[in-house]
Each structure stands twice: as structure tokens, then as C-alpha cells.
Amino acid sequence: MDLGLGGRVALVCASTGGLGQAAAEALGAEGAAVAVTGRRRERAEEIAARITAGGGRAVGLGVDLTAPGAPDALVDETVGALGPIDVLVLNGPGPTPGTAADLTPEGVAAAVDLLVAPHVALVRRVLPGMRERGWGRIVAIGSGGVVAPIPGLVSSNAGRAALAGYLKTLATEVAADGVTVNLALPGRIATDRLVRLDQHAAERTGRPEREIRAAAEAAIPAGRYGGADEFGALVAFLGSERASYITGTAVRCDGGQHPAL
Question: Does the structural domain 9-188+228-253 have CATH classification 3.40.605.10?
Fold first, then answer.
């Protein structure tokens, strides 16, 4: 299937590793020009060079989206290097773990500053151009916690749910302008971060890491962790021409782990 991404420009946040990198590589493989971004500029440039070597077009940009003015600067750099942004992939690190009973107003503000405010700023910059051109894709890499809050991750649950509410509201406002807005929700995807989490669980419980992973896989109907490339393919599809009638929804890539529809 031709996803119709040839000639499109995609800005992928936090794409120097894990799910963001997989999304950037998938979009690049489908013909989009990609801005690979993250706090590690050298790593962003390395991934962009790999996409370019494979026949694509990409640029690596260093950015800390929580810094004042960073979202505006990132959009300006991307447009200057590649052209107007057609596909915006929102992504970012999760806040520190914690319980609901221990959450403070300051913790709420920190979650919003990390997971909501920079993304709203990016949307506000790219949306007018998308609407004017009559075509745009906004895809947020979220978390399964949007559907079923994850114990011990209250700040992530709250911040990502707030972003999801904003994006769902936005989707209804811009659908008639040719702009779609969706979330891609990962389950247990085999990234370096998940490996570290399994290692930490093994150290904390004194159990072998293979047992930790086996128990986690047993709770997934598919019986395995997902591949980063499988998740990247979902993001590329939602960001494509072929997904033009899909908007305002959250699509899980979790091997059937969550029991809800």
C-alpha cells in the first residue's frame, strides 16, 4: 500500500531512541522528509543520516522542548530545513513514578509542563498552515495509561490523559479542514527502556530477568513484546494520506493486553 507520504514533511518529537525513533524511521521509509529531534543533537543527526543513506530525506535537530521558546524554535528550524510541516508526531519522556496519594499541586504542574504545554505550543504553531493547505496529520505517542491508568505512574496518567482530552477536542474542531488528530498507544514494546525496566524489576525482586519478561509476556494475548518497527508502522499509517477518515481516536498497539475494546 502506498501511504501517500512522498513529499510530505514530518516533525517527530523525542525521536533519538525508542518509539520516537521507530516512528521517524517508518515515516522516512514511506517517503516523508523527517526532522529527527531530541536533546542529543549528535544522536539525532546520526539517525537522520541513516534515513538519508537509505534514500530518504532527513535532518537531525537538538532541542529541549521544555526550555522557553523551544517549540517555536524547533518549528522554525524544521521549516527552514525541510519546508512546511504536514505531519506532527508528539512524543516525550514520562515524568517520575509516584502514587496518587503522594501527588502534589507542584507535581501536577510539572506533569503539565512536560507532557502538555510543549505539545500545545507545537500544535498552535503548525496548525494554521495545515488548515490553510487543507491537509495535516497530528499523531501523539501516548501510553496505555490513557485507557487504563497504570499503578504507580500517577503523573504520567494525569498528564497524558489531559493531552488526550485536548487532542480529542481539537480533532472535532479541525476535521473539516482536512486535519486529523489521533493517538497511538503502545503496550509493552521491546525498546531499550523496556529492557531497563525489566532489569530494574529483576533487581528489585531478586528474580531472574528472564522470569520477569516471561511473566509479562504471559499477560499479553499475543504472547510476546511488540517490535518498535510494528509501533512505528502504526504512527506512519495514522500520519498518512490513507488514514484521512480516522480522527479523534486512540489506537492501541499492545498485542491485546488491555481488556477494553
Answer: no
